[in-house]
From TrEMBL:
Stated name of the protein: Aldehyde dehydrogenase family protein
PANTHER family: ALDEHYDE DEHYDROGENASE-RELATED
Top-rank taxon, per record: Bacteria
GO molecular function, one term: oxidoreductase activity, acting on the aldehyde or oxo group of donors, NAD or NADP as acceptor
Organism ancestry: Bacteria, Pseudomonadati, Pseudomonadota, Alphaproteobacteria, Rhodospirillales
Keyword set, alphabetical order: Oxidoreductase
Cross-referenced Pfam families: Aldedh (PF00171)
Segments forming domain Aldehyde dehydrogenase: 18-280
Length: 476
């Protein structure tokens, strides 16, 4: 059943015409989808997962993504295509989304899950295969259809991904049009037409797209920009912290919004922590190299596409770093303060980690919040510590949705097998980031819920029970 069937009349213009046709097909597919049957819905979700998890497909799509976009590396994208998909499938198969999803006789409540309608899924160039599958799995889990708006840079990869998803749907006798893609060439006008026409827009990537979706009049979920700062305090296991930061920083050449962009180290362990990061593969830039990073990573105030998300040897060669830097895993650049006039405190999408020295933990929290004011507020932070009080203080005093403790941020922030965050490739940042969700995007965002309410024994306290404390303190 379709949540909303709209008689769409194409407006003037090719973008509107193309989207109107896709919407008709999507609604027809929803009408044919056996989305009243949880077992059949779960088969459809599993089919989408297998389309990218299948080893030869995971490798193919990883290779296509790097070839199309020039961003990241194949090995990391294979891991992303498989690990994220496997984790998301685990989460989704454990959930009820159609029919009766919850029943509580004591409260007189029965909840029914129902589709939200046709989902418009806007996806980024950094994940042109994994993100479309991740969103499609969640959309179909809710009984919906999805139309994907890919990044123009990753169109070839996303188009092939959609072909593979549709082939798996056909194999298990589900309508192929449950998953569609905007036709090439994708333009801002066409993406906007999809946002305007769908029942729910879910937007990852360009903050321009997020803002346009949130002001479109369509119900929209957008996610904020990353710029993760991580604190190393004076109780941390320094080598463990360095290894985790390194593994996370270099994954897919720092394309993830969850990649560490800055590390804030307490003065008491500053030199030792830097040594640990060097042992893990970091190269500490001198003043001359720092100047080259600043000149090479940004061009006219914008990140230089010739160096972002590139292998370290390519990055070092293009901006003129030393041979030692070229053979390292990533570069570290010390800076004395974050601020809007300090590019190194911004998101870098490159194998560059900014390093700050903090006097004490209070100063580390101050620096961390200053970084987030530049970019990344609402998204997430990390801390390496053996002091639970420090972790709790950071959570209490920082305006972010996620605070990860002693974890490789990229591998934990979007869900992990050793934390309870839902697996996703889209992380909401709450109102701090101008987002409508303050959690990881998950299946609950793709269903409407009908509440069947019956009466229970009256639950009405006395006036004294509710007002007594106030009366005794302030009078009536």
């Amino acid at each position: 059943m379709s949540a909303k069937v709209t008689a769409l009349e194409p407006a003037a213009g090719s973008a509107e015409l193309a989207v109107a046709d896709l919407m008709r097909r999507a609604h027809a597919a929803m009408d044919a989808y056996e989305n009243h049957d949880q077992g059949r819905v779960d088969e459809a979700v599993t089919a989408l997962a297998w389309s990218i998890y299948k080893p030869e497909n995971a490798k193919l799509l990883a290779e296509l993504a790097v070839e199309d976009t020039g961003l990241g590396n194949v090995d990391s994208k294979i891991i992303k295509n498989t690990r994220k998909t496997f984790g998301a499938l685990r989460d989704l198969l454990r959930a009820k989304t159609v029919g009766v999803i919850e029943e509580d006789p004591a409260k007189g409540m029965v909840k029914y899950g129902k589709p939200v309608g046709v989902v418009g899924a806007v996806c980024p160039s950094t994940n042109p295969a994994a993100t479309p599958v991740n969103k499609a799995m969640m959309a179909l889990k809710g009984g919906n259809a999805v139309v994907i708006a890919p990044s123009p840079a990753g169109y070839g990869t996303t188009a092939r991904t959609v072909e593979l998803m549709r082939a798996e749907l056909k194999k298990c006798n589900h309508p192929e049009d449950l998953v569609q893609i905007l036709p090439a060439p994708v333009t801002k006008e066409m993406t906007q037409a999809l946002i305007n026409s769908c029942d729910l827009a879910v937007v990852t990537g360009s903050q321009n797209n997020v803002k346009r979706a949130m002001t479109s009049g369509t119900v929209a979920i957008g996610v904020g920009a990353g710029n993760v700062p991580v604190i190393i305090d004076d109780t941390a296991d320094l080598d463990d912290a360095a290894e985790k930061i390194t593994a996370s920083k270099i994954f897919d050449n720092a394309t993830s919004c969850s990649s560490e962009n800055s590390v804030v180290i307490l003065d008491a362990v500053y030199d030792q922590a830097l040594d640990a990061l060097k042992r893990a593969g970091g190269h500490l830039c001198d003043a001359g190299e720092k100047s080259k990073v600043l000149d090479g990573l940004w061009q006219n105030g914008h990140l230089n596409r010739h160096v972002i998300a590139k292998d370290m040897n390519v990055f070092a060669e293009v901006i003129g770093l030393s041979a030692a830097a070229a053979t390292a895993k990533f570069a570290m650049v010390e800076d004395d303060r974050p601020g809007p006039d300090r590019p190194l405190s911004d998101e870098k999408l490159a194998l560059v980690l900014t390093v700050y020295r903090a006097r004490d933990f209070a100063d580390a929290k101050r620096i961390t919040n200053a970084i987030l004011e530049v970019k990344g507020k609402g998204h997430s932070v990390g801390i390496h510590t053996a002091n639970p009080t420090h972790a709790r203080e950071l959570a209490e005093e920082t305006d972010v949705v996620r605070v990860l403790v002693n974890q490789a941020h990229t591998f934990g922030n979007g869900g992990s097998f050793n934390n309870t965050l839902p697996f996703t490739l889209s992380m909401g940042g709450g109102t701090w980031a101008g987002n409508s969700i303050s959690e990881n995007l998950n299946y609950r965002h793709f269903i409407n819920i009908t509440h069947l309410v019956t009466t229970i024994a009256e639950d009405k306290p006395s006036e004294e029970a509710l007002f007594g404390g106030y009366w005794s303190k302030y009078g009536k």
